[in-house]
Fold:
Amino acid sequence: MEKIALTAQVREKAGKGVARELRRNARIPAVLYSHGKSMPISMGTKEVATILNTEGGKHALLTLTLQGTKEAAERMALIKDYELDPITNKLMHMDLMEVAMDEKVKVQISIHLTGNSIGVKEGGILQYGLHQVDIECFPQQIPSHFDVDITAVKVNDSLHVRDIKAPEGVKILNDADATIVTIQPPVSAEKLESMLGAGAPAAAGEGEPELVKKPKKEGEADAKAAPAAKGGAAPAKAAAAPAAKAAPKK
Structure:
């Protein structure tokens, strides 16, 4: 387990304005969490970036020296989370978790695949399952990563969580049957052509949608109805003429 020394400054103020000012001065706003409590701190951007860019740096045990506090100046901490700017990819914020050397912690560890799979050499397709696993152990036992050798994996074979060789004292919390990697059989030319043909558009004139008639407006007469056939009876009048009055008797 790698240990890295880092100096942090306790800050009295918090907020977006304070955070922006810290970044302008090449410092990263951060929070140190410890047993339900939190302490706002700041750290040098260059020092933190160096840690994150080293192998296992994200899971390194930090010997944190605090400046500007009356409490214990030295703490042991792990990187809990950090935030990057989605556009510039610059570090924006970081959360640290204080740990005790005699208390177990839960962290996520990355999986590194090693070797060249026999199945891939035969044309198989490597398909990932898990990229990392959850573990529980004492802080000094945290590994930087897990190496998983895929050399002997053939087509239609898989490696699972149970195949990881964890160091003594490290407990993997994931389901033992969870798949890490599998080698899918190669796709034949016939199957590929069939898959591509399945999405081809229908031939002209086939499967064309039926035209939908525009609904008539309320009160609209059937003026557009087809006229009567030639020689047919004339349409009846809407109303009969009123009867003539009888002549008065002389």
